[in-house]
Amino acid sequence: MMLINWSDDDLVNFPILDEQHRGIISTINTLDYFIKQDWPITNLKPTVDTVIHNVKFHFKTEETILIKQNAPAISLAITRDYRMQFLNELNKHFEDAVNMSDPKGLTDYLVNWWSGHKLEYHDKLSNYLNPDVA
Prior knowledge:
There is one protein chain. By secondary structure, the protein is mainly alpha-helical. It has a single domain (11-128), classed as Hemerythrin-like (Four Helix Bundle (Hemerythrin (Met), subunit A), Up-down Bundle). Helix content is 72%, strand content 0%. The chain has helices at 15-36, 45-68, 73-100, 104-125.
């Protein structure tokens, strides 16, 4: 069973963002698979780096779309603050997983982040994410 299952409820109806979301979920599920296979926590770093890379690329895509769609400065500020908070927290959870040799907090964080990403973050920006304009 996958840690996070993609569903139509996850769609934001902006094709490139939906595609990136599926990729992020896939990488998180890969990380969970390796953890369940008892890979040493330090060997998980490349997969964590892939999650970080995919999320950074996704955030940059969202920010570029917002700029192109003339979103207000506050929307861009929300995007940048949200991105920095996520990356700082993800790095901390990975460090904690390494230091405590327990990756459960890392996957718990990623599951909670994903569940809130669309509901809390995309809903705030939905007026500026129009695929017909991009």
